[in-house]
Design a protein that fits this description.
Layout lengths: L10 H5 L7 E3 L2 H10 L3 E6 L4 H11 L2 H10 L1 E6 L4 H15 L6 E5 L5 E5 L13 H14 L1 H20 L8 H13 L17 H14 L2 H15 L14 E2 L7 E2 L2 E2 H18 L2 H17 L10 E2 L2 E2 L2 E2 L7 H8 L3 H8 L19 H8 L5 H17 L7 E2 L2 E2 H17 L10 H31 L10 E3 L2 E2 L5 H18 L2 H18 L31 H16 L2 H11 L3 H4 L7 H11 L3 E6 L5 H11 L6 E6 L22 E6 L2 E2 L6 H8 L2
Helix pairs in contact: 4-6, 5-7, 8-9, 9-10, 9-11, 9-24, 11-12, 11-17, 13-14, 17-18, 17-19, 18-19, 19-20, 19-21, 21-22, 21-24, 22-24, 25-26
Length: 699
């Protein structure tokens, strides 16, 4: 018989709707029942693509004996962390405070007034891994609640007080530019030059750290930092964590080699990594980085996009009950698909009969292009094409397998990140057909480039339209959408990520709709989320009352809402010349100065925001006619390089209504397309020559 989750919309909650556990969704019904029946709450938090969430569900939540214990002594509440990051964030702090670490599934026991008194993550069904059996945990806590209530409540009060202190005790120091130099140096010193990345396995892709280092290296012309960035991006792209057959990145690597991934694919990881590879390609012109961008965005378009334009949340790690089954190969499978090309492919990936993981093969590149070309008597240029053709054939074969589950809910924040990736790729990748490039490059790439521009811009535009309509019913932004239904909640990160995505799309097609929508959302964000002492709360001023009103400033797997808001307001200030946006952004930076110097990887998106807020951003306004060749050459000059500290507004003349204030009072010189560059409250001489514009844009 279904439980109370049966009418929910979240795929994760629906996965548990037929458990024998009497699950409730988070809400007044469950919370009131805990109070009236004087029972503690078991709060279980996870997400649809979480492998160990599935394991605990199968071992414990589908078990009749365990569910009987849960139903007799607890009110059991399931939460999808992706729909309710506020609840997840509060109780993750509690788990870390009580155990020293956190993760999912998250298992927290609460008093009826929501104070946590015991916490953990995965619990096995019997004692193993030096962990107590879940049934023993349930029995012990039920006994403590009945017979030692005062001690339980004392623990709850202590943890609740600790959480309140965490919100209040945030730094008020000032972050300065010299701090960014010291942080970049520290990141370089702790980098793993053996395998790439930071720290030991499990290794997570630190896309935000790479973005900061790239931004900082460009601003300071630091070639050593650029060497680090290339090393890390190449290490992650060899395969394993990166899906060389179908494109896209898994959540993290379980080993130091980046070879054995945790196979779930998250929208946000791919959004963040696409931009890191795109920006690195703009700086280095490494063809492999561009290929990663294209393959990953093509994967998102093919497998993670709703027909109306929104992007799905994740693909599961498991299929047919096995982690990674969809992605691994046997030698015979590869030979049957590739036939005469198999020898070449086996050499490229070092494939052996016994495989490299549990008797199967995870594709992980072993031989480089030059070695392959020499061994098989090929031109160096032919190797990538030959590999791509093999990948395509394997992809077709893989598509016949049972697919991993898709979490098809659409989250505003994560969609804002992917919107930015598609929008920026649409404009950056157009340049291969532009006249700024050598003639022999133009013809070869024009057809592919036009396809990318058209498809990626279309994906970005449809995404923006979807978010501004379906996720903003009645003009009120919402967190999540699935099957035509939205949740009631919305969070700071939803506003901030969408604002940034819209600003990127505006700088791609210069449609004022995106700019005006971004400004409207920013004003709403300031009104609904501002904190008196600086920065923003994660929940709106009219949101649900929880144990605390969370204000998370640390970047985790996704950027914090506060770091995104700081970045968004810095850019909006440059577009609008409204000092209030800059004031709020700069005040926000005082929140993290005391932490970022000690834990820079935990505040990496903040560091990019700080580069813009503390550095000198360039404002560029371009006027001209859309069909004017020089107008397009000027825009392409802006896009030809990675320019993280530049915001661009453009319009035909006369200037369109609702354009950014950056375009105000600009005029054509000599009736020609004209560019205006301003920096640090000083404007350079307007120019009609794109070469002069390029000189003015140099750091």
């Amino acid at each position: 018989m279904p439980n109370h989750l049966i009418n929910e919309n979240s795929p994760y909650l629906l996965q548990h709707a037929n458990n024998p556990v009497d699950w409730y969704p988070w809400g007044e019904e469950a919370l009131s029942k805990a109070r009236t029946k004087d029972k503690p709450i078991f709060l279980s938090i996870g997400y649809a693509a979480c492998h160990w969430c599935h394991v605990m569900a199968h071992e414990s939540f589908e078990d009749d004996e365990t569910s009987t214990l849960m139903n007799e002594d607890f009110i059991n509440i399931k939460v999808d962390r992706e729909e309710r990051p506020d609840i997840d964030g509060i109780y993750m702090q509690a788990v870390i405070a009580m155990t020293g670490s956190g993760g999912w599934p998250m298992s927290v026991f609460l008093t009826p007034d929501l104070k946590p008194f015991y916490a953990g993550t995965y619990f096995p069904p019997v004692r193993r891994f030096n962990m107590p059996a879940f049934k023993d945990v349930l029995s012990g806590l039920a006994n403590a609640w009945k017979n030692d209530r005062s001690e339980v409540e004392k623990t709850g009060l202590q943890v609740g007080a600790h959480l309140q202190t965490q919100v209040k005790n945030q730094s008020k120091d000032f972050l300065a530019l010299e701090h960014l130099d010291a942080i970049a140096k520290a990141m370089q010193e702790s980098y793993d030059w053996g395998y790439g990345g930071w720290g030991d396995a499990p290794k997570f892709p630190q896309a935000m750290a790479l973005e900061f280092l790239l931004h900082h290296s460009v601003a300071n012309k630091n070639d050593e930092t650029l060497k680090l960035i290339k090393h890390c991006l190449q290490a992650m792209a060899r395969g394993g964590m990166y899906d060389v057959v179908g494109g896209g990145f898994s959540r993290y690597s379980t080993d130091n080699l980046w070879r054995v991934p945790h196979f779930e694919k998250m929208l946000y990881d791919n959004a963040l990594l696409v931009r890191a590879y795109l920006h690195a390609w703009q700086v280095t012109k490494e063809p492999a980085f561009k290929r990663i961008v294209e393959e990953t965005l093509d994967f998102i378009a093919r497998e993670m996009t709703h027909e109306q334009g929104g992007f799905y949340s994740s693909l599961d790690a498991d299929s047919e009950g096995e982690e990674g089954r969809f992605y691994v190969w046997s030698l015979n499978e590869i030979r049957n698909v590739l036939n005469n090309d198999s020898d070449f492919f086996e050499a490229a990936y070092g494939i052996i009969p016994d495989g490299n993981w549990e008797g199967k093969t995870i594709l992980h590149r072993q031989m480089d292009d030059a070695s392959l070309a020499a061994r098989f008597g090929l031109n160096l240029e032919a190797v990538p094409a030959k590999l791509a053709e093999s990948h395509s054939r394997l992809l077709a074969a893989r598509s016949m397998r049972a697919r991993p589950g898709t979490d098809d809910k659409i989250l505003t924040a994560w969609n804002g990140l992917m919107l930015a990736a598609f929008a920026e790729a649409a404009r950056a990748l157009t340049l291969e057909s532009d006249s700024l490039l050598p003639e022999n490059t133009q013809e070869k790439n024009t057809q592919q480039t036009v396809r990318l521009q058209r498809e990626y811009l279309s994906a970005a535009t449809r995404s923006a339209e979807f978010l501004l309509s379906e996720l903003r019913p009645g003009g009120k932004l919402r967190r999540a959408w699935r099957d035509g239904k939205t949740t009631n909640e919305v969070f700071l990160e939803d506003y901030a990520a969408l604002i940034l995505g819209l600003l990127e799309l505006y700088q791609t097609d210069f449609n004022n709709t995106w700019f005006t929508s971004a400004k409207e959302l920013a004003d709403e964000m300031i009104e609904r989320f501002s904190a008196p002492e600086g920065g923003f709360f994660d929940t709106p001023n009219d949101g649900e009352t929880l144990l605390i009103r969370p204000k998370d400033i640390q970047d985790n797997a996704t950027p914090s809402g506060n770091s995104l808001a700081c970045e968004a307001l810095s850019k909006l200030a440059a577009f609008t010349d409204e000092g209030r946006y800059r004031d709020i952004a700069e005040k926000s930076l005082t929140l993290i100065a005391g932490y970022v110097l000690r834990y820079p990887l935990g505040f990496a998106r903040w560091l990019s925001a700080a580069e813009n807020a503390l550095g000198t951003m360039k404002q560029v306004a371009v006027l001209g006619e859309a069909q004017d060749e020089n107008f397009q050459r000027m825009l392409n000059a802006l896009r030809a390089e990675y320019r993280p500290g530049v915001v661009t507004a453009a319009s035909s003349h006369p200037i369109k209504e609702n354009s950014p204030a950056l375009l105000n009072d600009r005029a054509l010189m000599e009736n020609k397309s004209t560019a205006y560059v301003c920096e640090g409250f000083i404007c350079k001489q307007p120019t009609t020559e794109f070469q002069t514009l390029i000189e003015q844009l140099k750091f």
